[in-house]
Amino acid sequence: MKLGRREFVKLTAAATAVTAFGGLGFDLAPTKAHAQLMSLRKGKETTSVCCYCSVGCGLIVTTDEKTGRAINIEGDPDHPISEGALCAKGAATFQLAENPQRITKPRYRAAGSDKWEEKSWDWMLNEIAKRVKKVRDASFTEKNAKGEIVNRTEGLASVGSAAMDNEECWIYQAFLRSLGLTYIEHQARI
Amino acid sequence: MTNHWIDFKNSDCILIMGSNAAENHPICWKWVTRAQEAGGTVIHVDPRYTRTSSKSDLYVPLRSGSDIGVLGGMIKYIVDNDLIQKEYVLHYTNASFIVSKDFSFSDGLFSGFDEAGRKYDKKSWDFEMDENGVPKRDMTLQDPRCVYQILKKHYDRYDIKKVSAISGSPEDKLLAFYKAYTATGKPDKSGTILYAMGWTQHTVGVQNIRAMSIIQLLLGNMGVAGGGVNALRGESNVQGSTDQALLFHIIPGYLATPRANWPTLEEYLKANTPVSKDPKSVNWWQNRPKYVASLLKSFYKEADLPTAYNWMPKLDAGQNASWLVLFDKMLKGQFKGFFAWGMNPAASGADSNKTREALSKLDWMVNVNIFDNETGSFWKGPGMDPKKIKTEVFFLPCCVSVEKEGSISNSGRWMQWRYAGPKPMGDTKPDGDIIYELALKIRELYKKDKGAFPDPILGLNVDDWGDGHVFDPHKVAKLINGYFLKDTTIKGADGKETVYKAGSQLPSFVMLQADGSTCSGNWIYAGSYTDKGNMAARRDKTQTPEQEKVGLFPNWTWSWPVNRRVIYNRAGVDLQGKPWAPNKPVLAWDAANKKWLIDVVDGGGDAGAKHPFIMQKHGMGAIYGPGLNDGPLPEYYEPLECPVTEHPFSKTLNNPTALIFADEAHKRTTCDPRFPFVCTTYRVTEHWQTGVLTRWLPWLTEAQPQMFCEMSEELAELKGIKNGEKVILENPRGQLWAIAIVTKRFKPFEVMGNPVHVVGIPWHYGWVWPKDGGDAANLLTPAVGDPNTGIPETKAFMVNVKKA
Fold this sequence. Notes:
The complex is a heterodimer.
Chain A: H1 5-21, H2 29-38, E1 43-49, E2 58-64, E3 70-75, H3 93-97, E4 107-109, E5 117-118, H4 121-139, E6 140-143, E7 149-153, E8 156-159, H5 166-179, E9 184-185
Parallel strand pairs in A: 8-9
Antiparallel strand pairs in A: 1-2, 2-3, 4-5, 6-7
Helix pairs in contact in A: 1-2
Chain B: E1 13-17, H1 21-24, H2 29-37, E2 41-46, H3 51-55, E3 58-61, H4 67-80, H5 86-92, E4 105-106, E5 109-110, E6 113-114, E7 119-120, H6 147-155, H7 160-167, H8 171-182, E8 191-195, H9 197-200, H10 205-218, E9 229-231, H11 238-243, E10 250-251, E11 255-256, H12 265-272, H13 288-299, H14 305-311, H15 323-331, E12 337-341, H16 345-348, H17 352-359, E13 364-369, E14 392-397, E15 406-409, E16 414-418, H18 431-449, H19 455-459, H20 473-481, E17 483-484, E18 488-491, E19 497-500, E20 518-519, E21 529-530, E22 533-534, H21 545-550, E23 558-559, E24 587-590, E25 595-598, E26 677-682, H22 698-703, E27 708-712, H23 713-719, E28 726-731, E29 734-743, E30 749-751, E31 754-756, E32 758-762, E33 797-803
């Protein structure tokens, strides 16, 4: 069996743990077995950049080819800024991706309701589109009080988001401005 | 940042003020440490002793909000002891410029103040021009109306005794700080400043940074390795999202948002294109017409330029539509629909109770996020009765960063490409897909049913966003870079003509045209995705020995603008093009071959041919800055909520132009015995922002499980509070519980002879999760803001603390 560096470290750690805590009365065999199993999963590596602060540390993401889910996320040793290091948050990225508490279906809360209802993407986007059009059509202002041309939508506003990629930010602002929004803000203002 | 993360290692003195870099940007500390190992000094100035302080060579405590006093004191120290880098100050800054006869300053107010309007008429702050329309200068710096003399007079009041009395910083510590930092005024030495929200979140936020910029110019620290003014930004792509203009006042590439008083493109360009009569001033913004035209074509490819401009929404003249105003208008019922996209304003906005109430005035809200949060679920939050809240909420689950492809720009302006690893979990989608699909659906509705002014919606260039169904980040990255819309012949500097075919990518912004023949979604990103490929995806660590010495990595990803790694680098060399610091040059002029070496030069032309600060109209570093809303020089003002009724520098207590809401005076307190303690907010290493992307991660929540309040042993004794006990913080805006951390990290300050206690709380928590985690720090913060940016004053406000 050929061991990668990471798997080797894991096995070594497990073996050390057995030695160190061998007399403590609990069984570390399952840990060791799990560590051995890990090395048998086939993963594809991709590079990414940490999503938290703005240092821009490099990540290596290993994705299970069978399940399409992350097996491991760690620092990228080739990255010239971070040189493989990550802080507590960056090192926890795995739990951000592989988190059972993520919301994975669109959901809707009706006026006056005390609960969420799961809905399809199609239903959600259709309903939002209808509401955007309704508010825009009702609040669109061609001229302001002084009679100057403003071509803007007064009844809609947006905040967000520095959590998006550049390309997403760009189309988002173009989308909002094409609708006539002027109240466009995000994290940079707070 | 003017410089970049790795560049910290080149510094002789790193000042960290308004930031806790070691805890909040931990990996950057690698480069701070390397500077220290090379003999550099690290100084931390902060109200609280943090891990940054413990790693620094000198820690100087200061009361939160008194920074301009401390920095003004340093300016006085530099001037009194003649520590300026003389050649730099003379040739590269506006120190020699003559200011208008009408300019005056008296008792905390500059000339032109309109008390009723809480604003300045800036006319009297102008420079005096010669017969050619170039600013008059006095190269001896002796004229009483030259910037240097005005500066000297202005800060003459900031003597160390007064500074110490108001800031609570001990005199000996201030002196040690001034001495260590101003040693970087020697031409071959450099000092840098690392700041973050500890400087911006004040009603004098911009002037805090201005004060330091003045110091950096006086000491010749801009444009050099280990120098610059460096904002440590808080989000992985807040640099990029600002560049792409998700803000009311700009459109992509730092171009002004169209306004009603500029009804046509011609009038917009006239008002926004500066003219310089100085042949040595590059005056880069003279190119603005090219950038605006190319941006308009990226939005509306088929429309002619006047039409495309007409389609852009316009603010009223002078209108402020920034965050605090937005939520004030929301509370007053202006908005029916609202998008909270990748944001949690119910916890992140100042005065959370106001923000949460404002959300209840909406007809509907769209909330896009990875996890449940205080905004999407506001209707079932503390004190809310869901039955009475009519706001419909559409929660759209987006995928996490490692599940999608695209670029983000770090604080050092490096645009870094990320690849998709795992596929989006469950039914989650990349934000790009959600935006794209929604835009297409709205477009379909307008195609079918018409409606109000459909032209901009139907004319939007969505073809460059995807394949009709799925968002394509490569296509958009190419659009942001820009391309030729027709075959274009361009004459280079050497007179050689090059023909660019329609559809080919722009090699750089130099090729952008003002006539609508090029499109570019963001001129500062032109050059990032060319016909040679995706520059942001580069992973080549090749460097020349000179580049390696300063850690430039010019072939690793891509840096805006034009892959320049240190901006204003032209100020890093003398008029002959020789680096001020020959041991660590960022730029050098090769006279024999007539070319610039190491980094990409700012500007162009031969050594000494151009003034170095190319984005300034007159080409000079602005010691005197006549464009801001609260004065051409930073002046000391207390936070709007403060523990004193007067300060030693003038009778003007607070920033007279700060953004306030007149109907909220009852919610603010100063020297009120009921709320006697200064409170400040901050982060911990294990959490991030409002905690939406960290509170749900067990590894992190285990380390930092709940809301706490740090306080000094002296205050704890005064209030009978023990370490680990639950306490209540309160003020007229709200109430919050926290676990007391009684610590030596906070010490009472002696301010104007009286003790002042400062307490601190992290801002990462919210009622949704974890269940016993506490709620948002912003329940206590005031909705008041900086007059230039509108950023709220969440770093200094008044509270009471008591046992729960």
